[in-house]
UniProtKB/TrEMBL annotation:
It is a peripheral membrane protein. Residues 6-256 form the ABC transporter domain. Transmembrane segments: none annotated. Keywords: ATP-binding, Nucleotide-binding, Transport. This is Dipeptide ABC transporter ATP binding subunit DppF. It comes from the Bacteria. Belongs to the ABC transporter superfamily. InterPro entries: AAA+_ATPase, ABC_transp_ATP-bind, ABC_transporter-like_ATP-bd, ABC_transporter-like_CS, Oligopep_ABC_C, P-loop_NTPase. Pfam families: ABC_tran, oligo_HPY. It is found in: Cell inner membrane. It comes from Mesorhizobium ventifaucium. NCBIfam families: oligo_HPY. SUPFAM superfamilies: P-loop containing nucleoside triphosphate hydrolases (SSF52540). The lineage of its organism: Bacteria, Pseudomonadati, Pseudomonadota, Alphaproteobacteria, Hyphomicrobiales. The gene is dppF.
Length: 357
C-alpha cells in the first residue's frame, strides 16, 4: 500500500454552547481548528500541548466517536465519514484506542480474560477453549501471565490494568492504536515499562501509534514526529529530535523551557510568560498565541499564520519565525539563524504545571 496509513485533512470540531433556540448565532467552543497531519505504517506521531488544547478531541474525531464540523480522516486513502455499515465494521477492527485511566476504562465486573477477548467476540463467536487460548496469547503479548485472565480489574495493579487495556486494543490486530494519555495515570517506573512494551509491540507487529500526551519526557521517548497544539491548532510539527534540539515556534520553545529538567541552568533561564491560555470560545484574532508571545508583531494580531515548511521538513505556523514566502527559512534551522532574532529561552516560559519532562 502506498501513501500514509492515516491522513487527516483540515479537521475541525466546534462544540455548540447551548441549543440556541432563541439566539440567531450559537456561540461555539473551537476545540479543533484546521488540523492536518499524516501517519505512516509503523510510525508513532505524538500530539502534545497544554490541557484543553484539543488533543483528546482529535483522538475522538479519529475514532469517529464525535462527528467533525469540517475536514476529513482517511485510512489507506478512504474517507471514514463515507463508510457504510459493513465497511465501518471492518474499519473499526483496524483502529483501536488505549485510554488514560486504567482504573475507570475497564469494566469492573468482567475478568481480564473477558475484557481482552470482548472486541473479538463482537465480531465472531468464540468457544470457551478458543476464548481462553486467545486471552492467554494476548496476555503473553503484553508480558502478563495467562493465569491473570481470571482476575478482576480490582485485583490488578495500575500497570497490569493498563497492560490489559493494551491487550484488549491488540485483540483485533489493529494497524493503528490511538493512545490518549495512556501512561499519565501510572507511576514513572511503570510508565517506562508500558512505553517499552508499546515500542516492542510496534516493532513486532508494525502498528502505528497516535500518542497523545502533555508530558514532553514521554513524547521524546516514544515519538518519531511530534505535533504541538495550541488552542485547537497545530503550531509546529517536526521530527522529535529536531523539535527538542531546536524548537522553532515560540510556544514550542516555551513548552520545552517550562518542562522541569534536572539542569538548574535551564530552569533559571525560564521566566513566566504573561497571561493564561485564552478561551476557545472567543479565541484571539490572528495567531492565538500572540497575547502571550514576546515576539508578536502587528501581523500576528491580524492574520492566522499558515503552517510553513522549513528546510528540515518540519512545518511551523509563526509570522516571525517562519514567515510565509520568506526564502530564509529554507536555510537549515540549526545554529545561528536569521529567524532567531531573540534567544527565546531567555525570555519566555509557560506554566510548568501540566508539562513534565
Ligand atoms: N463534549 C464536549 N462538549 C463541549 N466542549 C468540549 C467537549 N469536549 C471537549 N470540549 C472542549 O474542547 C476543548 C478541547 O478539549 P480536549 O479535551 O480535546 O483538550 P485536551 O487537550 O485533550 O485537554 P486535556 O489534556 O485536559 O484532556 C476544551 O475547551 C474543552 O472544554
Amino acid at each position: 500500500m502506498s501513501g500514509p496509513l492515516l491522513k487527516v485533512e483540515n479537521l475541525t470540531k466546534h462544540y455548540p454552547l447551548g441549543s440556541g433556540i432563541f439566539k440567531k448565532t450559537i456561540p461555539v467552543i473551537r476545540a479543533v481548528e484546521d488540523v492536518s497531519f499524516s501517519v505512516e505504517a509503523g510510525e508513532t506521531l505524538c500530539i502534545v500541548g497544554e490541557s484543553g488544547c484539543g488533543k483528546s478531541t482529535v483522538a475522538r474525531l479519529l475514532m469517529r466517536l464525535v462527528e467533525p464540523t469540517g475536514g476529513r480522516v482517511l485510512i489507506d486513502g478512504t474517507d471514514i465519514a463515507g463508510l457504510k455499515k459493513d465497511a465501518l465494521h471492518a474499519w473499526r477492527r483496524r483502529m483501536q484506542m488505549v485510554f488514560q485511566d486504567p482504573y475507570s476504562s475497564l469494566n469492573p465486573r468482567l475478568t481480564a480474560g473477558q475484557i481482552i477477548t470482548e472486541p473479538v467476540e463482537n465480531f465472531e463467536r468464540l468457544g470457551r477453549r478458543q476464548r481462553q487460548a486467545l486471552a492467554a496469547d494476548l496476555l503473553r503479548n503484553v508480558g502478563m501471565s495467562p493465569e491473570m485472565m481470571h482476575r478482576l480489574p480490582s485485583e490488578l495493579s495500575g500497570g497490569q490494568r493498563q497492560r490489559v487495556g493494551i491487550a484488549r486494543a491488540l485483540a483485533l490486530r489493529p494497524s493503528l492504536i490511538i493512545a490518549d494519555e495512556a501512561v499519565s495515570a501510572l507511576d514513572v517506573s511503570v510508565q517506562a515499562q508500558i512505553l517499552n512494551l508499546l515500542l516492542d509491540l510496534q516493532q513486532q507487529m508494525g502498528i502505528s501509534f497516535v500518542f497523545i500526551s502533555h508530558d514532553l519526557g514521554v513524547v521524546e521517548y516514544i515519538g518519531r514526529r511530534v505535533a504541538v497544539m495550541y488552542l485547537g491548532r497545530i503550531v509546529e510539527l517536526a521530527q522529535c529530535e529536531a523539535l527538542f534540539a531546536k524548537p522553532v515556534h515560540p510556544y514550542t520553545e516555551a513548552l520545552i523551557a517550562a518542562a522541569p529538567v534536572p539542569d538548574p541552568t535551564r530552569a533559571r533561564l525560564a521566566t513566566p510568560v504573561e497571561g493564561e491560555v485564552p478561551s476557545p470560545i472567543n479565541p484571539p484574532t490572528g495567531c492565538a498565541f500572540h497575547p502571550r508571545c514576546p515576539l508578536a508583531v502587528e501581523r500576528c494580531r491580524i492574520d492566522v499564520p499558515p503552517l510553513v515548511p522549513m528546510a528540515d521538513g518540519r512545518v511551523v505556523a509563526c509570522h516571525v519565525r517562519a514567515p510565509a514566502g520568506d526564502a530564509r527559512h529554507l536555510a537549515p534551522v540549526t545554529g545561528d539563524h536569521p529567524l532567531y532574532p531573540v534567544a527565546m529561552s531567555d525570555t519566555l516560559s509557560i506554566r510548568a504545571s501540566r508539562v513534565h519532562r
